[in-house]
Amino acid sequence: MLWLMILVVVGLVFAPAMWLRPSVRDRRLARLRSAAAGMDVSVRLEDGPLHGNRDKMAAYRWLYPGLRPGPGFLLVRDTHASHSLKSYVQGWRWRVEPLRPLTPQASALFSRLLSQLPEDAVVVQSNDKSLTVWWDESLEAEAFAQLAAPATALRDVLQGNPDRVMGGVPNTPP
């Protein structure tokens, strides 16, 4: 009987420590976010850009340099978009289309990125500060590099092409 009481007391002491231990998913997300940070990708959980979505979404941001802002657009996966929105490529629709047409190089990189996004990536957004992919973080850290490469290349092509006039001088591509 004494041994049983000792086991119960020891169990009660260690039980809270087991609850604080990160889950397998938490450890995977920590590796994924660490890999993203190592590739200069900012990660934050925020209210997503989808209408009626009350849950926080992961926003992976490739920042534009401060003096080379990017264009504004918002592209939504078909499964989360109204069919009245203009189609871009199969499976994706514009909620906010860029003011100026994308260059052939940017369009090719954009198509490459969209084809490599996992199914849980639901929005690709750009504003003057960053190119952002909104998703539920389904990839492993090792697979993230395959996603990061086309996103980085697209960010590099889009930077310096804002939708607005900068400093009173119309923006011209480099």
TrEMBL record:
Q: What is this protein called?
A: Preprotein translocase subunit YajC
